[in-house]
Design goal:
By secondary structure, this protein is of the alpha+beta class. It is 23% helix and 48% strand.
Length: 88
């Protein structure tokens, strides 16, 4: 879901990872309506997933300019190589 302020949109996303065949597998991302909703979903998934993250990202889809993601929840430890892939 998206919150709109002027031309800027803020997206809230929960991204979890499962363990499979000895490695991490990225689950389907879940969009949330708000920061509070993203936190609720992330907390619910945290006990069942190897890693759970919730973040927001704001920007202008018209220009393609977006701020860096802001982490709002983290549970579990993601390997460095996956952190780099998420931030790219």
């Amino acid at each position: 879901m998206v919150t709109v302020h002027g031309g800027r949109h803020t997206y809230y996303v929960v991204q979890s990872f499962s363990l499979a065949d000895g490695g991490y597998v990225m689950d389907e991302p879940i969009e949330a309506r708000s920061e509070e909703a993203a936190l609720a979903v992330a907390r619910r998934l945290a006990g069942a997933k190897a890693v759970t993250l919730a973040f927001s990202r704001a920007g202008d889809p018209e220009t393609g300019e977006f701020d860096d993601a802001v982490l709002i929840f983290s549970d579990g430890e993601l390997p460095e190589e996956l952190v780099g892939a998420l931030c790219a």
